[in-house]
Amino acid sequence: MEFSSDVVTLEVNDHVATLWLDRPEARNALGSAFWRDLPLAATALASDASIRVVVVAAKGPHFTVGLDLKEFGGGFLAGGGEGSKATTNARTYQAVRTMQQAVTSLAQLEVPVIAAVHGYCIGGGVDLITACDIRLASADAVFSVRETKVAIVADLGTLERLPRIVSAGHVAELAFTGKDIDAARAQSIGLVNSLHGESAEEVRAAAHLLAEEIAANSPLAVRGTKAVLAANDGRTVDEGLDFVARWNTLYLQSNDLREAMTAFVERRAPKFTGD
After folding, report:
1. Quick one: angle between helices 219-231 and 255-266, nearest 10?
2. Same domain, 151 and 250
3. pLDDT on residue 75
4. Is residue 1 part of a domain?
5. Spatial CA neighbour of 209 closest among 11, 13, 1
6. What's the mean pLDDT in 217-231?
7. What's the rounded Cα separation, in Å, for the pair 142 and 162?
């Protein structure tokens, strides 16, 4: 797997990959380099068939303080240069769409993605974690849909994905106020699955244990389960049932299923290959 970035790094251990936000000196503020490199990292992860789960974590004291406002203030959204107002608006639109697609590249990974959050998870950080399948946090985590406080409508996915995770009233409160909420509140409303210790190390360890638990299952079945869950959006129950019936028609007769049955009879743990 070939990938290089100054702000995002990848590590792979057995079948679990870690995607690191790796700009700790800037509290992992999300600048143009991040939005450029995140989809490249997602492509690299997708190309490695050995990866069964991805953990998104961050180096330094915070997950991310969100969009790099210093760079934003310098006009990177407008793309710089000269031209008419229409040209400037077109650059802004394209820049926003590029960042949206970067977040979506994380959501579109076929394998489960687990966010391990510590410290600040502000603005664009919430966009990132709502694109993940599972969210864990340390007790020191702080979350904020901060955009209204800086006169922006959140536009990178939070307003679209958060309502699928927490109830409408909580979405409205967080999005309208831009307030900070602590980890306990985030857990109580279902934004995060569970809390783990007081430090980044503890929540990352919990995320990797969960990742290893998932990775021990049939990768075909796990990927299929994620695909079926995603396919349920916008479908009736009957349409969803037809989709999963078609999926299993294609993939049920796998070597992994044969291995699961054999391991059960032999009273041992199965060793899945994804075939």
Report:
1. 120
2. no
3. 58
4. no
5. 13
6. 94
7. 16
